[in-house]
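Q: What would this chain look like folded?
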Amino acid sequence: MGMKLLIEQELPTQVVANKCGVSRTTIWRWKQKWLKLNQNVQLENFNRPNRELGKTFRFAALKWKILTLSSRPHTSPKAISEDIVKLVLALRIQLKRCAEIIWFHLNQDYLVKISLDRD
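A: My prediction, written as structure tokens:
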């Protein structure tokens, strides 16, 4: 909706920001993403520069939906390393015992300190 107000109706950035309830910078960032998304669409009609009809016709070729990027972290700072996970899985296959026995062997024999999941 914000990009249609900004591009089609040619409203100022601050007015669009007020109508959408976001900051001016957010509208500017949306416009940058929108321009990159529609960089291959030709909006100008060079054969008939004074006709507005051609411009509105070309708006149909534009993509208006701007995808948002995920803000979730891709790694956890408390995640157990892959080596320890592989060691735990190998020990489970080898011993074929419960989690407490595996945890005991990791602490005593391999000196790997991990917590025992209590869920």
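The chain has two domains: 2-61, 76-119.
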